[in-house]
Amino acid sequence: MDRGIESGKIFDPPERTNYLPWVAHLDAALSAYDVHYVIYHREPKSWQRSAWNQAFKMRRVKADFETWAKDHSDLDAPSRIIEQFRGLLGERLHVLDMAEEIGADRLMGRFILELAGVSQDRIAEVVLPPRENESLPLASIELLRLIHETGKFRGVRYRTLSRLFKAHPELVAPNPKPARKKG
To answer: Could you say which DSSP state residue 103 is in?
Structure first.
């Protein structure tokens, strides 16, 4: 059985995006509990770009976005998958627009906490963690793509490079400022 739904595969051709059996199996396994399902969705084109970016950073994808997008071009897939799940799960499925819950000073997951019965006062006390899912600058992505092709950086070494580029985008800035001369 499939291990779950990877964001990068959501935009696969329709014959490869049948997640209904997986959700039905999960729902049957949890049938003794009062389970609710929450799906965060977003505008398909930005979601598609984000799915590629995530897969690229995790080394599941080596192709540039345009090449990858040709094979993952089903922009209607997220809506179709959600409707399939709605048919199975009914009122237990909650579909939220990610843009409405994410942003500065807003807690992603607030709805889930409310659904779980956490009080508004307790939710207000949650300290927002720093955002970690930032897109890499295009120059960083291009450099990482070239590194992918060499095959010499794997595992921890690759993740270290990715984190370095994310933390210091100036390292791969298209027009870096010249260093100042001392003295």
So the answer is: B
